[in-house]
Fold each of these.
Amino acid sequence: MDLLEHQGKQLFARHGLATSDGKAVTSVEDAVAAANEIGYPVVVKAQVLIGGRGKAGGVKLAADEAEAREHATNILGLDIKGHIVRTLWIEHASDIATEYYASVLLDRSEKKPLVMFSVEGGVDIEQVAEETPEKLIKQTVDPLEGLTREQALEIAKAGGADEDVVEGVADALVKLYEVWIEEDASLTEINPLIVTPDRQVKALDAKVTLDGNALFRHEENQGLGDTANMDPIELKAKEEGVTYVALDGDIGILGNGAGLVMSTLDVVAQHGGSPANFLDAGGGSDAEKVKQAVALILSNPNVKAVLFNIFGGITRCDEVAKGLVAAFGDLKPEVPFVVRLDGTNDVEGRRILEEAALPNVHAAKTMDGAAEQVVALAKEQS
C-alpha cells in the first residue's frame, strides 16, 4: 500500500525522523487557515501517488495569504498524470543548503534489506544510478543485527555526506531503517533529505510503501492510503476483505486463487473477450463470501456477462453454488452467468445449481469452454 507524502511523514515523525510542521487539508479555506497558523512562507503541495508533482504545477511556494489561496485554488482538482488532487499538504518552507537521497528497500537477490544513500538528492535517482552509479552507495544489512549506527556512519561517509552532518545523516538512516522494519514497509525513501543552513538534517519528502499483507499487525495504519482516488468498487472490496481489481472490459470474473484468476483473464482474452475485473474469492470461501463477491461484480454497470471459474480444493464447490443461489435470490442479476465447477464437492455443487434452475446460468465443463461461452454471451448483450 502506497502512502501519500503527509502519511509517510506521520510514520517518520512517529520514529523520530525530523520533518517540517504541516497540515493536510482538502479545501482552499482550510489551506489558507493552515498556512496562517503555520506561518509564512509555506509550501502548498499536491498529495498524489505519482512523481513529477513539481513539474506539473503541484508544488508551489506561498509568501503570504493571497498566494496561499491562489495556489490552493489552482492545485486542488488538478489532474497530475491521471491522479486528481483532492488533498493538499501545507508545510512551512525550509531553507535548503544541500539535498541528499536516502532509502531502504528489499534486495531480493540477497534476501536482505538494502540501504541506499547519495549526495545527489532532489533529482531522479534512477538517472543518478544510470549515469553516475559511483554516487549511489548501496549496502545490504544483516536482518538479524539491523542497521547499526556504525554501519550507518560508514554509509554516510562513503556516500560523501558533508563531514559536519555525517552524524545527522547516520541518525536519519537508522531511523529510516527503523520505520522500514517496525512498520512492515517494503520501501521507505526520502528525496530530498535536506541539510538546512544551520546544519540540521530532515526529511523534506516521504515515499513509503507498506506491506498490505502485514497490515493486520498495524491497526493504526489501516486507514492510510489514497482512498480518495481509489475505484469505489475496489474501495468497497477492500473494506470487505475481498481481492478485487477493476479492469476496463465487460466480462466479470470470479475465481479462487490468484493464479487461476489470472489464467482465466488470459483465456477470456484469447477468445476475444475483455475482463471487467480481477476477483479472487480466495481459498475456503463460503456462501456468504461468494454472495458478497457477486454483488461487487454486478455493481460495475459495464458488466455484460459473468464467468465463475472454480477449482475446488479448500474451497468447496457446493458452498460456491449455495452462494450463487443466495446472490440470485437477493440481487436478481440481469446478465448471463457461465459457471465452471471442478474439484471438491463439484458433483454436489452442480446438483444444487441444477435444482435451483437459476435463470440465465450456463454450466461449463472446462475453463476454455467456459471462456468461449461467456465471451459469446457478452457480445450478445452488447
Note: The mean pLDDT is 93.
Amino acid sequence: MNILETVVVASRGIAGNLTRSILTVLMVVIGVGSVITLVAVGNGTTKQVNDQIASLGASAVDAYPGFDPQGFMPAPLTQEDADALAKSPLGPDITLVAPISAATAKVVAGDKSSSAYATGTTPDYFTIKNSRVVEGRVFSPSDVFGGEAVAVIDGTLAKILFPDQPSVVGKTILVAGSPMKVIGVLAPTAVDKKFGTGGSEGNLFAPIDRVRATISGFGPLAGVVFSAKSPETVDAAKQQATAILTARGSTEPSFYSSDELRETLGGAQESLNGMLASVAGISLLVGGIGVTNVMLLTVRERTREIGIRKALGAQPGSIAGQFVLEATVLSVVGGGLGVLLALVVALFPINGVQPLIDGPTVLLAAGLSVIIGVFFGTYPAVRAARMNPVEALRVGT
C-alpha cells in the first residue's frame, strides 16, 4: 500500500466513526486551546503589572540611608547629600533629585480625621514619580521657597476627610495641629489600584521646610528620590549615587526602584505562569490519553479488517502507518481548531486581564498537537501491526 492509499484508508477510518472522531478532536481542541489561552493570560498579566510599575516612574530610584554590618545607621542622609547628588559631575545619569522628610501625622478636617503619611519634598518629586493630578495642582518652587502652608493629598485621604465633597481644593486641614490649604489631589497609583494602600490612611505632600518645621523636625532626611536619564541607565545612576554618597562619608545607601518592585512581583508572576502552564499541560496530556484510548478502541473494532489485510500480505509498517496517520490527522485538526479557539478567546479580557498571545506559544502548542498524534497513536498502531492474522480473523469474526 502506497502513501496515497494509506491516506485514503485512514480517511475512511476517521469518517467511519464520525462521532468518535469529533469527540477525539474536541479533546485536543480543549487541550491546545487551554495551553495557548492560559499562557496568554499569564503574558497579559505580566504585561499589565510591568505597565503599572512603569507608570510609577520607570526611571525613579528611592535612596535610603545604609546600615553598617551591626545594623546601625552611622550616617543618615542630609540635605547636603541631596544637593551633591543633584550637582556632582560624578552623576551624569542622575537628572532630577528630590529630598524627602517624612513622618506620620494626624490630619483633621471638621469632624473627620486620619493618621496620614506626610511627606515633605520639592516639586521635582511629582515629576520623578510620574504623579498624576486629578484636581488642582502640585506645589511650585515658590511654595517651597516660601515654606507655604499648602498640601497635596491623595485620593484615599480625600475620601476619608471629605467623603461627601465633590471638590476639596481650597479646603483647610489641620496637619499635626498646623493649618494647611489643600491645593491638589493625586490620582491613585497603579500599585494602589492593584494592591490597595497597604493599610495606609492616606498620603499628604507638602513643601519640605513646612513639614520639617511642623511635623518631622529639622533632622536627617528620610531619604532621597532621584531619576535616571532613562530606565536603561537606572543601574548606572545607582552606582553613581553610591560613589557620590560614599565619597561624602555615607555608608552604601539602600535603593528601591521599579526594578526591585518588578523583581519582587516577577517572582510571584513566574510562579503563577508556571502554575497556569502546568494546568494547561495537564489538559494537553488528558487529550493525548484520550487519543490513545480512542485509537485502541478503533483497533479493537477493526480487528477483522486488520486480519484480512495481513492475510492478503499487508506489511506491518503499512498497517501501523494507517493508524498513526489517523491519530495524527485527528490531533492536527484538533490543534488547528484549538489555536483558532484561543485566538477568539484572547479577543476578550479574562478577569480584567487582556490575554496576550505570542507566536512561540502558538507554534509550541501546534507542534505538541502533532507530537500527541504521533506519540499517543504509536502504541495502538504497533499493537495493530503485531496482530497475528489468524488470531485477528478469529477474534474479529
Note: The CA atoms of residues 72 and 97 lie 25 Å apart.
Amino acid sequence: MTTTDAPVSPPGRTGRSTGADPSVRRRALAPYFLILGAVLVLLLGMGYPVVWQIVTSFQKYGAMQQLGGKAPDFVGFDNYIAIAQDGTFWAVTFRSVLFCLVTAFVTIVVGVLLALLMTKIHAAARFTLQIALLLAWAMPVIAAMTVFIWLFNRQRGVINYLLSMIPGVDMKGFNWIGTTPLLFFIVASIIIIWMSVPFVAFSAYAGLTQVSGEVLEASQLDGASAVQRFRFIVFPVLKPVIAIVLLLNLIWDLRVFAQITLLQDAGPKSTDYDLLGTYIYKTGVAGLDFGAGAAMSIFVLALTIALSWFYVRSLIKEEGK
C-alpha cells in the first residue's frame, strides 16, 4: 500500500488562495496611508512656495511686476550670476555660516552641561531649573528681545551698570550693539543661545535617562574617571540625540531673522551687521528686487541641504544596517 503526502500550504495561505491574506496586506499598507496625509500637506504647504521661488529666481520681478503693471520677464540665470558676482552677498554668507556654526556648537555644549547638571542635583533644584528653562523657551521672541535690548542699553542697561561697579572699569555709555559687528554678533549669539538651550537641555536630559546607572556605578568602582565615563558610556547613548539637535540648531541659526532685525532696529542697519535672512529681506522686499531675493533664497535652501547632509547620510547608513 502506497501513501501520498498532501501538499503543505505556505503560511498565511489557504489551499485555494494564491494571494496574500487581505488583513496582512492592509496592515502592511497602513503606515503608508497614515503618512500620506502628512506628505500631501507638506507638499502643498511647502512645495508651492518653493516652486514659486524657483520660477521667480529666473525672472526680472520688481515693483512694476508686483503692482501688476508689467508681466515678469524671463531672464534665465541672470539673477544667479548677479549674486555670484556680489561681494557683499558672499561676505554675508561667510558671516552667516560662521555665526550658525559657533552659535549651534555653543548651544549644544551649554545644553548638554545643563542636562548633566539636572542628573546630579536634588529633585527640588532640578524642578526649579526645569521651570526656568521652560519659561525661557516659552517667552515670545519680541518680549525676549525687548529684555535683552534693555540689558545691553548704552544709557540705562544693566550690563553697563554692573560692569561699571568693578573698580577701574567705566562702561557708562558703551554701545554694545553699535560699536563693531563682532560685539553686535556676540550679543546676538547670547540671545539665540539663551532661546535655544532649553530644547537642547531637555532633549539631552531625556537621552541621559537611558544611561544605565548600574553600568556607571560599576565603571566608577573600576576606577574610571568622570571624563572616561562620559566619553565611553554616556556619550555613545547621547550621540543620536546630539546629532539631531545639532542639525536642527544649525538650520535654525542659519535662518535667523527676527532677532537680527530687532537688534538692527535698536542699533546700526549697515550690511556689515546683516546675516542671510536680513540681507535677503533688504534685497527682495525692501529693495523690490524679488528675482534676486528668490535666487538668494534658493541658494540658502541648497546651503541648508548641504549642512544637513552629514546627518541624512548617517541616517541612511543606519537604515542600511
Note: Residues 1-17 have pLDDT under 50 and may be disordered.
